[in-house]
Predict the structure.
Amino acid sequence: MFDLGGTLVEADAVHPGEIFRRILAYVGISKSLDETKNAVLNADKEAKDSNLVSLFGKIQCEEYWRKWNSLVLKHLGLEKNEELAKAVHSRWFDFMGFTLYPDSEEVQRELRLRGLKLGLVSNGYEEEVHLILEKVNLEKATFDIIVGVDTVQCMKPHPDIFKYALKKLKVKPEETMFVGDDVERDYKGATNACMHALLIDRKEKQRQSGLKTIKNLKEILSQID
């Protein structure tokens, strides 16, 4: 099983405030980057204080992001902004780039040839995962199962998201390896669910001892019997 962002796909390292600035400029509203960054910061705080973040994965994708976008727009002084909030959501991925890591397709093809089942477990909404896969031209059919936060209404590292994927794939945890780039969410989440885990550390920045790490996905092949 794989994580998505930072594991199979690289997202542009762009601040959400910049995405907001670009979309607003596209619809004819001029705001500075400092303004949009501050609005995102304040919206994040309000989302936590109002418990909006607790609804992530528990309400529909469009509804969650419409509410979050409305907070950002409110902090930009743009009131009565429901339609604009919807527009921001619908355009978000048009203004954010994703790139498939060069080793992703090759390794998944080899794993398929070895007769292994493949799963994708992400902390994004399922429809967002599908959009990203489409943008990088990676077929959804590559995976036997795709699990998002709305699938089980919980996020990694919660064990239920891993257990759900295991059940759907009809495999035992000790028969399964999870590959991800985040120590807490991916590596520890998987090991706490009794799965084997590999931490992909493409830039060799993870220095914690005792972790099984790889620098690229091709190293997975030597880890499989």
